[in-house]
Design brief:
The complex is a heterodimer of chains A (115) and B (113). Chain A has no helices and twelve strands. Chain A has 115 residues and is mainly beta. Chain A is globular, with a radius of gyration of 13 Å. The chains are: A mainly beta (115), B mainly beta (113).
């Protein structure tokens, strides 16, 4: 069965430090890949997505993610974290080309930012 | 433009009671999805409406859950009778069609005591 693994449940970084959130997926073919963020009291917001093409994708809020087929990974990065980035981050896949149906989510990584 | 709106934001009910969650999608979005996150685990798909029709309800956990979307506008998700394991956050999302971005609501936190 398809699955998404986010190995880090909690991460704490200092403001201004770089960030990398890990995501691995289990699926035979290359799925569509997404990163969502949920800030306190807010809904899930799409940060970025990968369908095909350039394996380094740029998203909103200064985030980027790199798809590595050989590692079945889609890690999220940000060069300099801001206090407002404190939130929970979810990696998700759609394991077929049918669009945004039936997203399969990871368990999430909660990010805390120290001043 | 209003986003996806969910009511209530929080609900605390006793085991055995009935609760109805509501989702108002973005106007004009034919596709509506329900997801659930239980006990800090993964967010899991429950079902998908296209207009008023259930396109896929493979994620519905059991027959205590009933989702409707009369008229193809807002949707309700009823849990009857509620059990302790139903506690979690229920998310609704909508999209214009199956190939465009789905926008999520803020979720309804359900606590069954």
């Amino acid at each position: 069965a398809q699955s998404v693994t986010q190995p880090d449940i909690h991460i704490t970084v200092s403001e201004g430090a770089s960030l990398e959130l890990r995501c691995n997926y289990s699926y035979g073919a290359t799925p569509y890949l997404f990163w969502y963020v949920q800030s306190p009291g807010q809904g899930l917001q799409l940060l970025l997505k990968y369908f095909s093409g350039d394996t380094l994708v740029q998203g909103i809020k200064g985030f980027e993610a790199e798809f590595k087929r050989s590692q079945s990974s889609f890690n999220l990065r940000k060069p300099s974290v801001h206090w407002s980035d404190a939130a929970e981050y979810f990696c998700a896949v759609v394991p077929f080309s049918g669009g945004y149906n039936k997203l399969i989510f990871g368990a999430g990584t909660r990010l805390a930012v120290h001043p | 433009e209003a986003g996806v709106t969910q009511f209530p934001s929080h609900s605390v009910i006793e085991k055995g009671q009935t609760v109805t969650l509501r989702c108002d999608p973005i106007s004009g979005h034919d596709n509506l999805y329900w997801y659930r996150r239980v006990m800090g685990k993964e967010i899991k798909f429950l079902l998908h409406f296209v207009k008023e029709s259930k396109q896929d309800e493979s994620g519905m956990p059991n027959n205590r859950f009933l989702a409707e979307r009369t008229g193809g506008t807002y949707s309700t998700l009823k849990v009857q009778p509620a059990e302790l394991e139903d506690s979690g956050v229920y998310f609704c999302a909508s999209s214009q069609d199956r190939s465009t971005e789905a926008f999520f609501g803020q979720g309804t936190r359900l606590t069954v005591v």
